[in-house]
Amino acid sequence: MTTGQDDPLRKLIDCIFVSHQDEAMDCESCGCQLECFAEKVSAGANLHDLWPDVEAHLACCPDCAEEFQALLCILRAERSGQLDTSAGR
Amino acid sequence: MTDRTNEQWLVDLTGSPEAQSPALEDLRERLQRGIFYYLSRERSDLTHLPAVELTRMAEDLAQDATLRVMDNLGSFRGDSRFTTWATKIAVRVAISDLRRARYKDFSLENMTAEGDLLPASAASITGSPEPGPEATTERADVMLKIQRALDEDLTERQRQALVAMALQGVPLEILAERMGTNRNALYKLIHDARRKLRAHLESEGLSTHYMLNLFEDR
Ligand SMILES: [Zn+2]
């Protein structure tokens, strides 16, 4: 039996222990290259292989993770043709 | 019409009005489509809103984002497609706006006025019907140790920030505003706090492995 994600103890443990031991990247350096990471990942690159430090930052920074996921979902939709990206009409 | 190259975007957006206005309109439209997709497909918290409302939001956000892109054209380094970079800016404008709206009534004063959050949390663990009595005692014990580490090792600001982020899910961006700092500095503050807590708890024999297994099936 597992306890729900909203258990406060679990949230604290996740926050304290899930983060990468040597995680050193901050929001600024992550954010200023976010478009490169998202573009490569949307094209099939693996974040874990290419930029483990970025992956680690996203794992312990909910703000950057939310922005990365949002950008990624839009790029993927564009690639798969779900969004009309032609510049004119 | 095919999509512009990065160079073409920059030339058009900084060019004569005849080149600039269609480019601006194309950019705004493109950002609006992306934002609308995100709001309507990825935001479970907005599913109750009618499409017409989401469209209006996407229009406003795309307008703001286009202005923001124009203000920051000089910082585009060409490491990605121009539209990817612009979409990043749009995503930030949109998410910032949603965060501000959601946490408009959040204040640190209210949070601390509620008193110490953790004893109540500890009680809710003990009251949880899920784990057996042994696991319950074990968890209450771990909670107590975390509580002590929070009290002993962290500054008031670190504790406030960590609890708000971890337990209440308050975005760093919002917390930073309320605490009179910026997100990057706040991230570092919390990062430091995590490291201190982990070292403290590990010195008490609570290893990462043990902690992460506390909630596994048993
Ligand atoms: Zn971050």
Describe the fold and architecture:
- The complex is a heterodimer of chains A (89) and B (218).
- Chain A is mostly helical.
- Helix content of chain A is 63%, strand content 0%.
- Chain B is mostly helical and 218 residues long.
- Chain B has two domains: 6-102, RNA polymerase sigma factor, region 2, helix turn helix motif (Rna Polymerase Sigma Factor, Chain: A, Orthogonal Bundle), CATH 1.10.1740.10; 108-215, Arc Repressor Mutant, subunit A.
- Chain B is built from eleven helices and no strands.
- In chain B, helix 2 packs across helix 4 and helix 6 runs antiparallel to helix 7.
- Bound molecules: zinc ion.
- The site of zinc ion (ZN) has 6 residues of chain A, from helix 2 and helix 6.
Number of strands of chain A: 0
- Shape, per Cα inertia axes of chain A: globular
Bound molecules: zinc ion
Number of domains of chain A: 1
- N- and C-termini, Cα separation of chain B: 61 Å
Q: Largest sheet of chain A at a glance?
A: none
Strand content of chain B: under 5%
* Largest β sheet strand count, sense and barrel closure of chain B: none
Largest interface: A-B, 47 and 63 residues
Assess the beta-strand content of chain A as a share of residues: under 5%
Topology (SSEs and partners):
The complex is a heterodimer of chains A (89) and B (218).
Chain A: H1 8-18, H2 27-31, H3 34-42, H4 47-50, H5 52-60, H6 62-79
Helix pairs in contact in A: 3-6, 5-6
Chain B: H1 6-13, H2 17-41, H3 51-71, H4 82-102, H5 108-113, H6 117-126, H7 133-153, H8 156-166, H9 172-178, H10 183-203, H11 208-213
Bound molecules: zinc ion.
Zinc ion is lined by residues 27, 30, 57, 61, 63-64 of chain A.
